[in-house]
Each structure stands twice: as C-alpha cells, then as structure tokens.
C-alpha cells in the first residue's frame, strides 16, 4: 500500500470519527470491499490502529482495541481461530478472520503454524488455500478438540470459595460453609469441596434475590417430595438463612432448593434425583427444553454434555430464568464482567443458549442472566477438567447408620488430591450402569473384572490405605503415560531428529542444534548463546549417556525437541553421551509441555531405556521404541 493512499485512508476514517462500512469505503476509494480489507490488514501490520466489527471500520487507539479485544494473548488467539474453523466446516476467509480478531494476515499465518502443532495429536490440519483457511480431519476429532479448547478456559479459581466471597462481599461465605457442613453431617450426608462451593454460590444468590424481592413463584407441591435426609437438611438450611438474613423462603424456593440438594451426584446417594426422574418434580416442558438446548449446543459446537448433576441444575436454572424474564424481574450478577472478560469462549456458549431460549420462549434475556448460564457451563467444564487429573471412583458400602458417611469422609481426607468419589452404592447390582469409572472401592466382594477394584474393611485399616494407594499410583501412572503418548508426535519432529552426527565438542553440538531450531522457526538467532550460558553454569549431561541442553528462559517461538542419537559416545563436559536432546520451550505452551517433558525425562533417566533407544535405525524406529518404553512403564 503506497504511503499517500495509506495516509488518505487513515485521514478519511479520522474525519468520520465513527464506523464506516466496507461498501461505503469501497465506493469512496473506488476499489472493491476485498481491497478495503487488504488496506486495513496492511495498515495494522505494525501497529493496530483500525478496529473492525459488523458495523464496519473505525480509527481507534491501540490501547482501545486491546481493551475491547479478549484475544490478545497468542494462546487465546489460537483457541479462537480453531474454534471458528471447527464451526465453519466450509472454511473461513483469512481477511474476515483478521477483521474479527483485530489481527493482520501475517499474524494469523504465524498463529496457524502454532495451531497446527497444537492439533497434531487430534490428526487435524489447517490448510491455507488462496484466501481460505479450512480445518481438515475427522468430525470426531474436531469434537474432541472443541471440548479441549473450552475446558482449557477454566481454572481452579473458576468456582473457588474466594471467588464466591469476592463476588458477594456482604455475605460471610466461609462461616456459612461451616454451618452448612454441620447440617449435612447431622443428617448423615456428605458433599465434596467442588459441590460445596457450587451449593454455597447457589444459596448466596438465592438469598440475595429474595432480599431484592425477586422470589421465584411456581405452582409447587412440597408434598410431592419424599421425606428423606436431603429434604430435612434443605429445610433446616432454609430456616437458618431465614433467621440470619431476615427473609422468607416461599414454597417454590424451598421446592427448588430441595430438588437442587437431591441431584444424583450432589449428595452421594444412589436413590437421589436424576435427569430421568426430574420430570416427576418439574414441568416436563422445562425438561424437554433443556434437552433441546443441550442438543443444539452439541450440533453447533460439537460439545456433548452428559451429566446428571449438571442437567438437574441447568433445568432448574432455565425454568427460573424464564419465570424472571416473563415477570420482568431484574437480577444483578456481580460475576458478569469477570466471566465475559476472562472466559470469552464459555461466555459465547452462554450467549448461544440464551438466543435459543429467546427464540423458543419468545422472551428477552438480559446480560446478567447470560452470565449465570456461563457460570453453569464453566462449572461443568471445570469439574470435567479436574476429574481428568484424578482417579474417578465409585464406592460400594451398605448404609448402616453412619458407617458409610464415615468411610467416605476418611477416603476423601486421605486421598483428596488424587481420588474423586462420584458414586456411592449400597451393593454391586448397579456397577454395570456406571460410566467413566477408573476404580471401585468396595466393602463387599465384587465380580466385576472390567474395572480395577480394591476390597476394604468397613472401618479402614492401615493395610486398606496401602492397597488403595498402590492402585491409585498404578492408575495415575497409566493415565499420565496415555497423555504423554498423545504429545510424542506434537513435540518430536522428523526433520529435527538425526543419527550419528559427530562434532568436536559440546559447544559445537549446541551451536549446530540451536542453528537448526532457528532455521525451522522454533527459536531466535540468539538462542544458542542462552543455551551455552546455562551449560557453563552446570553441565546438562546425566551420568547415563544423555545430555539435555536448554535455555534458562522460556522465550522460544515454538516448543519442540531436537535430538541426536549416536552409535558411539562423545565427550560432553566430564561425561560421555550418546543421546543429545535440545529443548525449546514457549512460555504459553509450558503447561501442556511439562507433563510430556517429565515423561520423556523419566524414560531417558534409566540406562536400559537409553541403551534401547540408541539402537534405533531411524526416526520411525525411534518413535516405536519410545512408545514401547512408555507402555512398559505403566
């Protein structure tokens, strides 16, 4: 773009001080709308000065664009690009994508290189043909990728007690938690930390709405609900909140709260409320509506949400949301800004669901209500993400007095960081119905040979704890190795694998390998100096014929591994080595890379493994041997 044309374009936008459509700009400059998009991308190449939206283009400061844009970090941009490509199966125009993300074409092209590395384990690839980007691969893998992208947005802080307290400073959430736990124990009931935080947030929101004259009023019959420990506990909690905050729970609010407390996995009780029994207590219209909404999410975003606890809470929430909208009740959500700003993809899901409800129910949904839906969606993915790190367990134990509760509490206290109990059964008859269970802990003999199990005493002994820990270690290692295998192809590159390259010194190897990484676009030209600086501080050679030279900084453009294996040893400092592994680490990818790196280092730390790997004839043979060693370590 010539300088005089560039200046004229910017000057014209400045004079308008408002949005200008691509058509109007094209007419004014007597060019096509496609040329206008090219102008914008070229002007934004070095510094982002023109914002774009559905309204067209306008001149803004770089700071303003950053404030409006949720996708400024490289990893967030990549996630959004992938999400858009998954949704647009026919492909996307690269200029349109640049307009949406406030990015130049060159920036998007750079992100695509990174994205292709990220999606390699899913056997997907982004193709760039002329001005069109398209995601190539199987539908099933695209769905897996979409779930991964959404789940990566959540964090352990998404629904922490601190987050709940910060959102509602007028309520003492930590004291309320102690009081709720005490009531649950009184009725021989138990919830884990995740469910407790969810329950507390619901209680605080309910109290806050009632105080602001926003009670829910439905035709609800409390007599329909069976009298059981959950009913008694819910009523006692409602009484406590009425006394503390000077409010009144009407029959509908109590009915809702009892249903919430009775959802199947909220309380570890095999007789509790499930998605299939929900229509006995809630109008079937709302149950069907929730099913339709989740089906549409699946069709649009390829995300399948199958979870009883989520479905019960989601249905109750949708029913109450529709009531508030039809009665024009205002709700203020103090989490709106945080959810919208910090979790843009989850918020987008909530917007989609809200739009569908508006169409189906002929109502208007306000932004604060959208944020509550985002909260439910985000909580589901946070839960799912946390379960991936833990061993998911079912416990079989007859419910004699308080024996079962005590057993669950002891297991939870002892194995809190590694075990998640999601089902408690009285006998083994329902085992066949369980899905996604890694381990069964039982006080009764069981015949299930499909799922690993541990037989324990009703009152746990030290031997019981040891047996459980052994099984947890074994299952955790297996889960970890499965994850490491997924990343073998992602971080190893055939063009960065060499055999029998003999140089004069460790410094020569560092220079050679860092130059190769630079040529392939992994690191800057100065990377070798940083690796040498680290090497001079302390040798990176192990005493088992392996050297792992690396930089002290995570400043690489891409994360990757350059490897040389040698038939005969070479000198590396005071050691002899036959395997040299140079690692480049990108800061944004360190969380994904860390578990993989740890797994590879564990393999390389044993001499017998190294001895096997150096026999590899070529790259494919090396990868086969690495995979075999990972399998053997399970």
From TrEMBL:
Matches recorded under SUPFAM superfamilies: Phoshotransferase/anion transport protein (SSF55804), PTS-regulatory domain, PRD (SSF63520), Winged helix' DNA-binding domain (SSF46785)
Domain PRD: residue ranges: 167-271, 281-387
Pfam families per the UniProt record, alphabetical: HTH_11 (PF08279), Mga (PF05043), PRD (PF00874), PTS_EIIA_2 (PF00359)
PTS EIIA type-2 domain: residues covered: 490-633
UniProt keyword terms in alphabetical order: Activator, Repeat, Transcription, Transcription regulation
InterPro entries for the chain: BglG_antiterminators, HTH_11, Mga_HTH, PRD, PRD_sf, PTrfase/Anion_transptr, PTS_EIIA_type-2_dom, WH-like_DNA-bd_sf
UniProt superkingdom: Bacteria
Alphabetical GO biological process terms: regulation of DNA-templated transcription
Designated name of the protein: Transcriptional antiterminator
């Amino acid at each position: 773009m010539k300088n005089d044309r560039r200046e004229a374009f910017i000057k014209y936008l400045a004079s308008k001080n408002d949005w200008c459509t691509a058509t109007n700009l094209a007419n004014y400059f007597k060019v096509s709308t496609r040329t206008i998009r090219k102008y914008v991308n070229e002007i934004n190449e070095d510094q982002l000065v023109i914002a774009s939206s559905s309204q067209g283009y306008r001149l803004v400061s770089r700071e303003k664009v950053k404030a409006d844009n949720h996708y400024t970090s490289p990893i967030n941009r990549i996630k959004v690009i992938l999400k858009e490509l998954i949704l647009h199966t026919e492909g996307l125009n690269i200029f349109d994508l640049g307009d949406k993300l406030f990015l130049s074409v060159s920036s998007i092209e750079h992100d695509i290189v990174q994205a292709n590395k990220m999606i390699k384990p899913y056997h997907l690839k982004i193709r760039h043909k002329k001005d069109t980007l398209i995601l190539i691969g199987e539908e099933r893998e695209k769905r897996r990728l979409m779930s991964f992208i959404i789940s990566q947005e959540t964090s352990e802080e998404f629904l922490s007690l601190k987050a709940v307290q910060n959102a509602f400073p007028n309520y003492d959430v930590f004291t309320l938690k102690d009081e709720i736990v005490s009531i649950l124990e009184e009725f021989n009931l138990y919830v884990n930390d995740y469910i407790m935080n969810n329950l507390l947030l619901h209680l605080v929101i309910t109290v806050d709405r009632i105080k602001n004259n926003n009670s829910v009023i439905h035709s609800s019959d409390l007599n329909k609900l069976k009298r059981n420990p959950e009913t008694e506990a819910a009523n006692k909690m409602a009484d406590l909140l009425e006394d503390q905050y000077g409010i009144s729970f009407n029959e509908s609010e109590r009915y809702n709260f009892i249903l919430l407390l009775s959802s199947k996995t909220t309380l570890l009780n095999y007789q509790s409320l499930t998605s299939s029994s929900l229509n006995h207590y809630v109008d079937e219209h709302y149950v069907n509506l929730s099913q339709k909404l989740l089906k549409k999410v699946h069709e649009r975003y390829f995300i399948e949400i199958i979870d009883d606890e989520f479905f019960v809470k989601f249905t109750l929430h949708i029913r109450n949301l529709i009531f508030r909208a039809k009665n024009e009740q205002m709700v203020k959500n103090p989490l709106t800004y945080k959810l919208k700003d910090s979790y843009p993809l989850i918020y987008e899901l909530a917007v989609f669901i809200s739009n569908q409800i508006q169409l189906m129910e002929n109502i208007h949904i306000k932004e604060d209500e959208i944020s509550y839906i985002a909260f439910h969606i985000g909580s589901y993915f946070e839960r799912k993400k946390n379960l991936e790190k833990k061993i998911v367990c079912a416990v079989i134990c007859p419910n004699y007095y308080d024996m079962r509760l005590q057993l669950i509490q002891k297991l939870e206290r002892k194995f809190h960081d590694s075990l998640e109990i999601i089902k408690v059964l009285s006998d083994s008859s329902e085992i066949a119905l369980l899905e996604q269970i890694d381990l069964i802990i039982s006080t009764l003999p069981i015949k299930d040979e499909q799922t690993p199990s541990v037989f324990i005493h009703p009152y746990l002994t030290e031997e019981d704890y040891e047996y459980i820990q052994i099984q947890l270690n074994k299952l955790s290692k297996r889960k970890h190795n499965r994850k490491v295998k997924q990343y073998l192809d992602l971080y190893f590159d055939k063009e960065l694998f060499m055999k029998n390259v003999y140089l004069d010194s460790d410094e020569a190897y560092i220079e050679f390998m860092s130059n190769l990484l630079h040529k392939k676009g992994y690191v800057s030209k100065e990377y070798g100096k940083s690796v040498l600086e680290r090497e001079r501080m302390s040798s990176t050679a192990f005493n088992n014929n392996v050297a792992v030279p690396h930089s002290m900084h995570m400043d690489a453009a891409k994360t990757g591994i350059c490897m040389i294996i040698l038939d005969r040893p070479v000198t590396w400092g005071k050691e002899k080595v036959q395997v040299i592994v140079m690692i480049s680490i990108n800061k944004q990818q360190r969380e994904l890379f860390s578990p993989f790196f740890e797994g590879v280092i564990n393999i390389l730390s044993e001499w017998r493994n190294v001895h096997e790997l150096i026999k590899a004839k070529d790259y494919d043979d090396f990868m086969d041997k690495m995979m075999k060693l990972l399998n053997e370590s399970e």
